[in-house]
Amino acid sequence: MFDVDLHAHTRFFHRSPGRPTAYDPVGAELLSLASRWRGMDAVALTNHDYHEPLGASGARPQFLPGIEVTTTDGHLLVVGPDPPSRTEPGALTPREVVSRAHDADCAVVLPHPFRHGSVRDSGAAFDAVEVNGKHPRRAARVHDLAADLGVPVVAGSDAHFPFEAARAYTRVDADELTPSAVVDAVRDGRVEPRVRSGPSHRLVRRVYEQIHRAKW
């Protein structure tokens, strides 16, 4: 069993909506430190429309390849051994993203399904639906949606700042911690969403909301 944050970013101050957010090694190091402190075994790096291939380090937490694709109808997470390196925001439909991801043996997760966009109504064959760390109160709706779609539920922090790391994560039932093993576990439903709660995590959400407003 492994604890994996399936949704995290390395570039924290992304002030250019609609443009790819490139890999930031400083942000990655801060994310790694915060995730290690919270006991994560692995973190999927899912920058917006940008994936930087990294060699396996063997350190904990392990970074898993991933990308958050801006489709014509909203966002999708692609996690696995060979996600696309770059995607043009708004250029691909959800079905196209899913088809390309599955051809590359990657899993596709529908993140924050009730935040914005209409991806959940696209009919694309997602592999899982996410309980998002920014919106844990929507967990019941996420579980209902997943039941309707016939897919499992995972969780990710959607961290854009180090203090948000691992506030939501996924317990993965796998014999080894590799991108392919994580993909197989997601597709097989050998996953369990976990969300941290309590006063400190509610404070984190409020702090993020203030930072998010200030960015624009």
What proportion of the residues form beta strands (DSSP E)? 15-25%
CATH topology annotation? TIM Barrel
Q: Give the helix proportion (percent range).
A: 25-40%
Report the major sheet.
9 strands, mixed
Low-confidence stretches: none
CATH superfamily heading: Metal-dependent hydrolases
Q: How many β-strands, per DSSP?
A: 9
- The CATH architecture designation is Alpha-Beta Barrel
Number of helices: 5
Oligomer designation: single chain
Helix and strand element order = EHEEEHEEHEEHEH
Please indicate the count of domains: 1
What's the N-to-C terminus distance?
Answer: 40 Å
**Cα gyration radius (Å):** 15 Å
Order of strands, main sheet, comes to: 7-6-5-4-3-2-1-8-9
* Helix/strand class: alpha/beta
CATH class categorisation: Alpha Beta
What form results from the Cα inertia axes? globular
What do the pLDDT scores average to? 88
Helix-strand blueprint:
Elements lengths: L1 E7 L16 H13 L4 E4 L16 E10 L2 E6 L14 H10 L3 E4 L17 E5 L6 H11 L3 E4 L11 E5 L6 H10 L2 E5 L3 H17 L1
Parallel strand pairs: 1-2, 2-3, 5-6, 6-7
Antiparallel strand pairs: 1-8, 3-4, 4-5, 8-9
Organism: Halobacterium sp. NMX12-1
GO molecular function: 5'-3' DNA exonuclease activity; 5'-3' RNA exonuclease activity
InterPro entries: PHP_domain, Pol/histidinol_Pase-like
Can I get a quick summary?
The chain has 216 residues and is α/β, with parallel strands linked by helices. It has five helices and nine strands; from the N terminus they run βαβββαββαββαβα.
